[in-house]
Amino acid sequence: MSTDRSGLTTTQAPFIEEAQSKGELYIRQPYELYSEENQDTWRRLYARILPRWEKYANPKFLEGVHKLALPADRVPRLEDINRFLEPLSGFSAKAVSGYVPAFMFFDCLRERAFPTTITIRDGATLDYLPEPDIFHDVAGHVPMHTDKVFADVLVRFGEVAHTAAELAAQIANVAEREQKLESVIKAMARFFWFTIEFGLMRRPGGGAGDVCVYGSGLLSSYGEIENCVENLRVQRFPFQLEWVINQYFEIHHYQPLLFVIDSFDHLFEEVDRLEAWMREGKLGNVSPGEPAVSEADVRSFIDAVTREVART
What we know:
This protein is an alpha/beta fold. The protein has a single domain (about 20-310), classed as Aromatic amino acid hydroxylase (Phenylalanine Hydroxylase), CATH 1.10.800. The protein has 13 helices and six strands. α7 (about 150-170) packs parallel to α12. The chain is globular. The N and C termini lie far apart (about 55 Å). The relative contact order is 0.13.
């Protein structure tokens, strides 16, 4: 693996380390720091996955790639991406230095801003992704943000996070509040994983069992985008909310179980139902297992609860 620290390679970028040491989460994209190796990594990633996008991706994703004028030959400038994106859905890509705690992430979505990693994976290991990179975030996620219905789903999901904080603020017992919040965060993370990150959709006009890919984790993975559609061992089931919120997942291998929605209107309806179930208390004790809910994630919601209590 490369140890060149002169560019913006994931886990090897002094610019990011400095921003993190200063507590700076929202940052600029220092485009001048991308090395030629970084640029070559983008070119190689884009060139090899493009034929698979054309074969497996949701048509709205392919439209988004075109609308964004997503460059094949260089790492995109976020300012260029946003110039095309904002007039279409109001969304923008917002550069961050690393992990964004759960409530802050969802709140960004509510404000039509997508937290975007600016580093790029090591070109020596194109399929190894120690953490999200700009290819996953921009090439995997952002083209879908050009579709207004899909963009509205993300905003709605951010609103659901606010509902979670409002409901938690009504629980006086601190231990009970934190337990229920952790369960709700786990349910939301699972929903997001099996839809926005690893979602499949019935292909418009296709026959029974004919699916296309809209989840960013699949769209940014050269191997998994084909595997999720072609591998007969992959379980593909119609979306069932009660199953999704109780289904654990693991991130370090191809997914053996995926869920299929009918349309983005259908997905929006399921987010509405997720919020309704939250209000009914159905998310307060979901099954254990992955994903683990970090202290930072819980704290981000607790801070939101504190602000909510202060307002009331």
